[in-house]
Design brief:
Length: 173
């Protein structure tokens, strides 16, 4: 049985803040997921390269919240060269503390979307054409998380227009 781990204390939060000293006021984190064990992953996730148009937005600094095999994409996508990676040994409490430091979170439908929403952090959730029932079938808002904005595929597999719409939103401030 797994032992419950308490949330980070003040000292641990300070350490996380120091590790990510540039996170405050330097904008966003992203997670695109890729969990082969999730049966809908091929629809809900997108390759890191698809997010490349976001990484050049002025005044932004990106922090990855990605764990697992998909972290290798950071080294493979030229536009992602300045993304600050998540520590490989970071647990969910560490991730929550980092999310709390960020201005906003960009994610697909993963635990990170729910974490950011629960923390009241502004978040931009990229959804497939047929999302999980929790997100509803239309609209850009969700009653579950008032600080979340939803960006939906207009057709199956169309991440390009989703990312373009998000880029326009972020550029407009």
């Amino acid at each position: 049985m797994r032992k419950h781990r308490p949330p980070p204390n003040q000292r641990q939060k300070s350490e996380i803040k120091n590790q990510h000293a540039d996170a405050r006021n330097e904008k966003f984190a992203r997670q695109q997921n890729f969990q082969e064990i999730h049966r809908n992953d091929r629809r809900r996730s997108l390759p890191l390269a698809a997010l490349a148009p976001l990484f050049s937005l002025p005044g932004t600094r990106w922090h990855s919240l990605q764990k697992g095999p998909a972290t290798s994409q950071l080294a493979q996508v030229h536009e992602a060269r300045d993304i600050v990676p998540l520590a490989p040994d970071a647990d969910f409490a560490h991730t929550a503390a980092l999310v709390d430091l960020l201005d906003a979170v960009v994610t697909v439908d993963t635990s990170i979307a729910h974490l950011a929403g629960a923390l009241g952090k502004p978040s931009y959730v990229l959804l497939p054409f047929a999302p999980d029932w929790r997100w509803g079938i239309a609209g850009s808002r969700t009653p579950w998380y008032p600080t979340a904005r939803l960006f939906r595929q207009p057709s199956i597999g169309d991440w390009t227009s989703v990312v373009a719409s998000l880029r326009d939103t972020l550029a407009a401030g």
